[in-house]
Design goal:
The protein is mostly helical. The chain has 1 helix and no strands. The relative contact order is 0.06. Pfam families: PadR (PF03551), Vir_act_alpha_C (PF10400).
């Protein structure tokens, strides 16, 4: 028998806590990754917009 299961096949308390912690960790990682990805995309858009605006102004002066 696995050390995570009792003889009746139900998960013991330690295993349930492990699965709960794993679930919380997974959800936190997904949310954090989504937030960081959004910040990165917005930063790239802002930088490209500023660069485009800067070069567009330069060309108008010529």
């Amino acid at each position: 028998m696995s050390r995570y299961c009792k003889l009746d096949g139900k998960l013991d308390k330690k295993s349930r806590e492990s699965w709960k912690l794993a679930g919380i960790t997974l959800v936190t990682a997904i949310i954090t990754g989504w937030a960081l990805d959004s910040i990165l995309i917005l930063g790239i858009l802002l930088a490209s917009g500023l660069l485009f605006g800067f070069f567009a102004e330069e060309e108008e002066d010529l």
